[in-house]
Predict the 3D structure of the following.
Amino acid sequence: MIRLQSYIGAAWRDGSGQGRAFGDPVTGEDIGIVDSTGLDMAEALSFARDKGGAALRAMSFADRGAILNAIADALLAKRAEYDDIARRNSGNTKRDAAIDIDGGIGTLKYYARLGKNLGDAKYLMEDGRDQLTKPGNFLVQHMWTSRPGVAVCINAYNFPSWGLWEKVAVAVLAGVPVFAKPASTSAWLSERMVRDAAQAGAIPEGVLSLICGRADGLLDAVTPFDHIAFTGSADTGAMIRSHAHVQSAAPRLNIEADSINCAILGESVAADSDVFNLIVREINGALTIKAGQLCTNIRRIFGPKALAAQLTDALAAKIDAIVSGNPANESVALGPLVNRSQQVAALEGLAKLKSETQVVRGGGAPEQLVDADPAKGAFLQPTLLSVGDGSNLKAIHETEVFGPVATVIPYGSMDEAIALAARGGGSLAASVWCEDGAEAACIAAGLGPFHGRVMCIDPEVGKGHTGHSIVMPQGVHGGPGRAGGGEELGGVRAVKHYMQRTAVQGSPSVLDGLAAQAATAFL
């Protein structure tokens, strides 16, 4: 049995308890133990602040970027070893693993380049000044400096690589050390990657800490200048928000939670068009990639009433060709959910959806699999549901089944499609699929207040897009309302979440002096 360790105080440490088992979602067998019992969270956070924080604030953006680049290179050197961990612990196919592993490394590389471009400066000045008095010799300009705290990053189970490294990349570039808490279910890959980076000498003391286990006392140890970045369920997010010490200490808090994302097929699309085929292909991918376990995944599919039946039939035909089973078999496109607990939760959510929908395909646990036993694994059938009218229904707009499940919902007008999308209560991502760019623009503008990201596909883009579910570091990630109200990534915009914006009022000479030592950016 593997026993994962925690990396705190620049050393690997064992917990003192029995810990919690994590396993293989295909076989149901235990692989190892995570345990952080007895580890002092307050002491570990203090070390990160004092050692790692001081070191990072003394560095330039280019120096911080060099750290990220060194970590990425250390991971690339061990890249071939990570697929097996992702398969055994998370049930990932090679494609699933690549999205997580290479996505994390790629994000590190992106922010490493950004740090190099920002150069030798240690802080940022916003472009532009405003005159405060008539003579024009008293101005204001905004400055961004590193906060003297720790980024406490609490991650979900579905992206043990990307979820970790996208937060590390931004915080370290901003000059803030990271204290990461991966989900216990899939912490093996996170621990292995941090271990590889540490062994390569890529992590300066205190810059990155890792807790594998429950991390009892972590929230009680945060201070006002710390930052909590959480990705996970709305229930856990609400617990963090309401935590007594978090409320009194008032650290910055960024939450990414549940999201009932959607894809909208425009009225301009014909059933025999390339755009129609593209949305069918994208939704089919959404049902198979990481077994549908993406916070940005497509849950609701809105199609014009005249095309809803054809869209449903086309999707059903694609689902019929999906091979489910053990991801070690190269013919398998759909692996298991991460464990049996998530399978139970998905089936419970699916029951709510089935109460107001028709089952087109799937609808439960599979009876047959390739190279796997349905009685032992955490599998869910790829499931397509449909409704005749979604305007008076509730569950389809409020219940997120974290698995390979989507519902086709017809609409009668562009305004109705936007209104139905808004019933999700705030989402991370939407996609719009139109023949007419003007139609796509109108829909995107209507979706804007309710979504953190809107991807528009028309014939000009065609196949040349990154995907509905894929988060790119150049664009912001997050969403309003039930999606948590948080935001991260988005190029240089991301660093503002870990830095302090200060309005500096003074003469042109004072502001020129500050600007001469700063990097200038639009934030």
About this structure: The first strand starts at residue 2 and ends at 3. The longest helix spans residues 94-118. The chain has two domains: 2-257+486-521, 261-475.
